[in-house]
Amino acid sequence: MRRQVVSILAATLLAGAAPEAQSQVRGFPLYPAQVPRGLSVSGDVAFPSDDVCPGACAGVTIAGGFGRVGVSVAAATSGFGGLLTLSLLSPGRGPFGLVLQGGASGTSSGAVQAPFGAGFSVWVPTPLVSIQPSIGVRGQYMSPGDGFEGDGAVHAGFSAGLALTLLNGLGLRAVYDRVFLTGDDLSTFGVGVFFSFDPGL
Q1: Which domain covers residue 122, as residue numbers?
Q2: 16 — pLDDT class (breaks 50, 70, 90)
Q3: d(Cα 28, Cα 38) in Å, to the nearest integer?
Q4: Which pLDDT belongs to residue 111?
């Protein structure tokens, strides 16, 4: 019985990939997660405090992990972007993740945002689902003409989230994100579903 529990816990740790961070596409939160193992595909819906999307923003992200390096690209109703994640801890060696993140995103109108910062997460296995709380802090550059007070400068931001991953790699995630502007702060709440797998490449 004890061996079965240990086997299940080990499988939970190794199943699929951690949900990869999505670049700060306008209207979406930044996911401060560990570098994924293998590949992951996710669909997200975000509810920003500004009117960048009518009602809600929807987007798709594809991410891949290559040792200590993770890369993701995202396309959404509000824009597109990419993110590079670098792990400061050995991937797969323990439950803690400490990453550096940097990326850029744009819109059809030419507005650009560029986040850069750090994230910390904990990978907690259980017999049925892996739990991954995460938190991140960053600076966020917003290009002139983006339509916000104080644009054309770097602003402080943070995000905090929770992801749940089943043994088959299917998972759910939710994140709250805030960027501190000179006038009215920008806040975003996002939820999504993802599927991760390791093709063994």
Answers
A1: 2-196
A2: very low
A3: 24
A4: 83
Residue 159 CA to residue 172 CA, distance in Å, equals 17
Per the domain annotation, does 201 fall within a domain?
no
Q: Which residues contact 61 (CB under 8 A, 6 or more apart)?
A: 20, 22, 40, 41, 42, 43, 44, 72, 73, 74, 194
Per-residue pLDDT at 9 exceeds 60: no
Which DSSP string corresponds to 126-188? -SSEEEEEEEEEEEEEE-TTSSSTT-SEEEEEEEEEEEEEETTSEEEEEEEEEE--SSSPEEE
Q: Is 125 part of any domain?
A: yes
Rounded Cα gap, residues 53 and 60, in angstroms: 15
CATH number at residue 44: 2.40.160
DSSP secondary structure code for residue 57 in this structure: E
Of 7-16, 93-102, 111-120, the poorest mean pLDDT is in 7-16
Q: How far apart are CA 104 and CA 143, in angstroms?
A: 11
